[in-house]
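In the design runs reported in the main text, the only information available to the sequence generator was the tokenized backbone. The following block is the verbatim input for one such run; it is reproduced so that readers can re-run the procedure and compare outputs position by position.
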């Protein structure tokens, strides 16, 4: 049976990492073209004594969404003997799914399978040690990473992680905002009496309690790659923390905790 840590890690991958595939499909013309007009379901499922753990990528005429859980009759299934094995694959480690379902898909849906592998390779840009080769890739990495982190923070709370629950339960309605100057890259985490919700864009209904503003994509990269911590980044001018420095530092600690989980 999967451990609590393994299940939490799977939750982050399935509910926070997989959804940012949408950024690749919407922002990268080549990827968008590959899935234009595609109608298919691609299932990721790990066996566990307590029941299967997984999520399904759904493509509907170029529109992408992630369905949590196990869907019936998918076009392709990535099946894993354990949650740990599935987590390892998402983390970019040498862990393969069961080959039987994939060999079947190779004969039935070869183009779809190849394109989905392309998406999974694209997700590797989220890994801290992944080095973007072009400005477009750098922008993609920053956008996808911030979107994943804001959602992962909320999922950490929804999963009942003790430290996160304790921290959020004592707070009134507060907005934690991230943005990159000069770019349409922004996301936020809303906290209210133990409840959390992640969102995209700039929150306009109230002033953020903490706003982490990166001066550029290039300056965001070392912070989001964990090359420097939040305090060092502020000192070096890579990020400006508008609002409470104490709470800004704390959210930075949780960000690093998430990075450690998915590494």
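Verbatim output:
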């Amino acid at each position: 049976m999967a451990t609590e840590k393994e299940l939490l890690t799977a939750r982050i991958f399935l509910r926070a990492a997989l959804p940012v595939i949408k950024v690749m499909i919407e922002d990268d013309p080549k990827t968008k073209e590959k899935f234009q007009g595609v109608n298919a379901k691609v299932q990721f499922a790990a066996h566990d004594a307590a029941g299967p753990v997984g999520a399904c990528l759904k493509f509907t005429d170029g529109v992408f969404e992630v369905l949590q859980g196990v869907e019936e009759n998918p076009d392709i299934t990535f099946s894993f003997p354990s949650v740990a094995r599935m987590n390892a694959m998402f983390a970019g480690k040498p862990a393969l799914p069961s080959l039987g379902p994939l060999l079947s898909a190779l004969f039935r849906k070869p183009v779809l399978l190849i394109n989905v592998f392309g998406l999974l390779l694209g997700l590797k840009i989220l890994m801290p040690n992944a080095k973007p080769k072009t400005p477009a890739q750098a922008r993609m990495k920053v956008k996808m990473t911030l979107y994943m982190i804001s959602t992962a923070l909320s999922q950490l709370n929804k999963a009942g992680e003790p430290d996160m629950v304790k921290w959020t339960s004592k707070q009134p309605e507060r907005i934690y905002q991230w943005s990159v100057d000069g770019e349409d890259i922004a996301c936020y985490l809303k906290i209210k009496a133990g409840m959390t919700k992640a969102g995209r864009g700039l929150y306009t209904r109230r002033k953020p309690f903490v706003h982490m503003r990166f001066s550029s994509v290039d300056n965001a990269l070392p912070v989001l790659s964990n090359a420097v911590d939040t305090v060092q980044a502020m000192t070096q001018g890579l990020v400006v923390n508008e609002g409470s420095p104490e709470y800004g530092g704390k959210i930075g600690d949780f960000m690093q905790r998430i990075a450690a989980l998915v590494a």
